[in-house]
Design a protein that fits this description.
This protein has eleven helices and seven strands. By secondary structure, the protein is mostly helical. It has one domain. A three-stranded mixed β-sheet has the order 5-6-7. It has a two-stranded antiparallel ribbon with strand order 1-2. A two-stranded antiparallel ribbon has the order 3-4. A hairpin with a 2-residue loop joins strand 5 and strand 6. It is globular.
């Protein structure tokens, strides 16, 4: 005996199809091309042409930061979310500086990092919260400290292209290598001085490699043994603007 047909089955199937299709639809990647174009044109060797952006590209920057505010990143891959937040931080810093020109240093702006709020993926956050409440705890990757650029000369140099999901891991390795091999570590005879970033965020480098010295040793192999057990001094941190 054949089972009786369920007359409501076609209706239920028709109603469920749109939901199934929506659930299986690919997540739309966030478009960083506008920011990538700005960086390519206005950042050279880590120096930012803030005046040039204000004169000719402020509308594009504002549009990109506006898109950051409304973005939905919940369905993106981990690397796509990391690229989004790194770009968001750097773009907001640039906009905050451009909006306040002429400016000699971000430290001349009260609450630049801890009071001024911006909307990122639907949430109102300060730059400090974006770094320390979202990026650091979500991704737990010490290399992010060489990708977040705070607008100062002693920050890691800003790159001339935006981060992307496919290249963010390779870019973090490249930026870390560049900083550790360059301005982040100075060896002078028996004395080794390192950026204060390694002091401020020591817990991240210790978690990543066991100690700050062991973290540095991964990127300066010729001096690995010495760095692994060294006692460090710290370089003076310049907050002068990283502009042209």
């Amino acid at each position: 005996m054949r089972p009786r047909a369920n007359p409501s089955a076609p209706v239920l199937l028709a109603l469920s199809l749109p939901l199934l299709m929506a659930a299986s639809a690919p997540v739309q990647a966030f478009d960083h091309s506008k920011f990538n174009g700005l960086l390519a044109k206005y950042v050279k060797r880590g120096q930012v042409d803030y005046s040039g952006i204000k004169a000719a590209a402020k509308a594009e920057l504002d549009q990109y930061v506006g898109a950051i505010a409304k973005a939905n990143v919940s369905g993106l891959s981990k690397n796509a979310r990391l690229a989004f937040y790194l770009n968001a931080y750097n773009a907001i810093v640039i906009k905050a500086i451009v909006d306040r020109l002429p400016l000699a240093s971000v430290m001349k702006v009260p609450g630049f990092f801890k009071k001024a709020q911006y909307r990122v993926a639907g949430k109102a956050v300060t730059l400090d919260q974006l770094e320390n409440k979202i990026i650091r705890p979500q991704f737990q990757d010490a290399r992010i400290h060489f990708a977040l650029v705070c607008g100062a000369r002693s920050c890691p140099p800003l790159g001339s292209r935006a981060f992307s999901a496919g290249k963010v891991d390779a870019d973090l390795n490249r930026l870390t290598q560049r900083f550790v091999a360059g301005r982040g570590v100075k060896v002078d005879g028996d004395q080794i001085k390192i950026s204060k970033l390694f002091q401020w965020y020591a817990v991240d480098f210790e978690k990543a490699a066991g100690s700050v010295g062991k973290f540095l040793a991964q990127y300066r192999e010729a001096e690995a043994e010495r760095l692994s057990s060294a006692k460090f001094g710290y370089l003076k941190y310049s907050w002068a603007l990283n502009g042209k």
